[in-house]
Amino acid sequence: MKPTSLTYLEDMSLLALEAEVLAVEEEEGKTVVVLDQTIFYPQGGGQPFDQGFIRSASAVFKVEEVRFVDGIVKHVGMFEQGNFSAGETVQCEVDAERRLLHARLHSAGHVVDLALLEFPNIHWKPGKGYHFPQGPYVEY
What we know:
The protein is α+β, with helices and mostly antiparallel strands. The chain is built from two helices and ten strands; from the N terminus they run βαβββββββαββ. Strands 2-3-7-6-5-8 form a six-stranded antiparallel barrel. A two-stranded parallel sheet has the order 1-4. Strands 9-10 form a two-stranded antiparallel sheet.
């Protein structure tokens, strides 16, 4: 399967997109939809995944989790109505409120990094960041 085009990297403000279904699979008891391109941000870099919906004329898929595996973005969730077929055109819609909250938390972590770099006698090196709403932090 060809790698997913990561449209979210080109325009983070884009919250809706038309895409082509490449596959609908079952993995570990969960439904996975693979598209040719996506605006759904997968979990990574200390930031949580997007959620939202993928719709066609006859189906609605609720995206509950997004994972990036070997160049492929896997939209994990459940069909609320119908099903998709490979080659079908679908409309993707990211939960804007969730995306914007996570983006603000992620940016705030970088602001903390920049602030610490300005202190002349502090030479801490950032280790990892956790930009989830349940207790965000930056570890040094």
